[in-house]
């Protein structure tokens, strides 16, 4: 249903960013969202806050047996779990103007393992804007310029979290009117190259020992490393955003003004 709502937004409005929408646009968007809900659930969306909270909790519980969740557990050989829990928190808002924003970050580059902050940030936005691709995210470093105090606190916090968990972390955060809120953190996914680089550097930094480093390099990481690697020819004809690990191959044909994928 979320994907359908995103499609509604992109098809219905010419504004590039949510912040460009007028109050009338937003009211129209809400009505369309309500129509999608009625179509999917067969009933009107409740205006009772307690009922909305109950519905949100049940959605999380139901997600445990979704095809995507089952496939994820199968791929990662996660067994023996009986379900998930729901953590209810006070809402913070990253869409309260240019002193607010939201972002996600890895404490190290998950692709290369480089010991450098890697992430995305959006001013005047909520987390869904980042993950759903509704708006084009900015590099995390832009936050240092527009919200220096919150950025410095974020750097301090990620260093504390990495030292505590002794691993590369995936962190979500929101800034509401220049105040930083840490939403959640978890162990970050990484490529095979990233995994090896991270554990080697963490051993050299004294964060973990050699035995721990060996345990943290998974068989799938070694499988990636042992596959043939594509060497860059130095010619770039375009660019795009990564959506996952792996490699794909297509034929590109020049159509006079643009490249066509065949």
UniProtKB/TrEMBL annotation:
GO molecular function (one): ATP binding
Alphabetized Gene3D superfamilies for the sequence: 1.20.80.30, ATP-grasp fold, A domain, ATP-grasp fold, B domain, Pyruvate Phosphate Dikinase, domain 2
Membrane-traversing stretches: none
UniProt keyword annotations, A-Z: Kinase, Pyruvate, Transferase
Protein EC: 2.7.9.1
Pfam short name (any one): PPDK_N
Record's keyword annotation contains Thylakoid: no
SUPFAM superfamilies: Glutathione synthetase ATP-binding domain-like
Keyword match Phosphoprotein: no
Top-level taxon of the source organism: Eukaryota
Domain annotation Pyruvate phosphate dikinase AMP/ATP-binding: ranges: 51-142, 152-205
UniProt similarity note: Belongs to the PEP-utilizing enzyme family.
Name under which the protein is recorded: Putative pyruvate, phosphate dikinase
Lineage: Eukaryota, Viridiplantae, Streptophyta, Embryophyta, Tracheophyta
């Amino acid at each position: 249903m979320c994907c359908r709502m995103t499609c509604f937004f992109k098809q219905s409005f010419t504004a590039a960013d949510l912040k460009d929408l007028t109050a009338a646009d937003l009211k129209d968007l809400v009505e369309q969202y309500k129509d999608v809900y009625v179509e999917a659930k067969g009933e009107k969306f409740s205006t009772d806050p307690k009922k909305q909270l109950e519905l949100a909790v049940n959605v999380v519980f139901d997600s445990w047996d979704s095809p995507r969740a089952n496939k994820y557990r199968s791929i990662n050989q996660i067994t023996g779990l009986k379900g998930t829990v729901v953590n209810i928190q006070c809402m913070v808002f990253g869409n309260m103007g240019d002193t607010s924003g939201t972002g996600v970050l890895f404490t190290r580059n998950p692709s290369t393992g480089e010991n450098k902050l890697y992430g995305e940030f959006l001013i005047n936005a909520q987390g869904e804007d980042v993950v759903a691709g509704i708006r084009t995210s900015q590099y995390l470093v832009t936050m240092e310029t527009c919200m220096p105090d919150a950025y410095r606190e974020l750097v301090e916090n990620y260093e504390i979290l990495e030292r505590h968990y002794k691993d590369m972390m995936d962190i979500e955060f929101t800034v509401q009117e220049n105040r930083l809120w840490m939403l959640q953190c978890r162990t970050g996914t990484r490529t095979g190259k990233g995994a090896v680089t991270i554990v080697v550097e963490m051993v050299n930094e004294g964060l973990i020992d050699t035995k721990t480093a060996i345990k943290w390099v998974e068989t799938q990481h070694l499988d990636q490393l042992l596959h043939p690697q594509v060497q860059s020819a130095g010619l770039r004809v375009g660019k795009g955003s990564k959506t996952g690990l792996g490699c794909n191959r297509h034929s590109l044909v020049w159509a006079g003004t643009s490249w066509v994928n065949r």
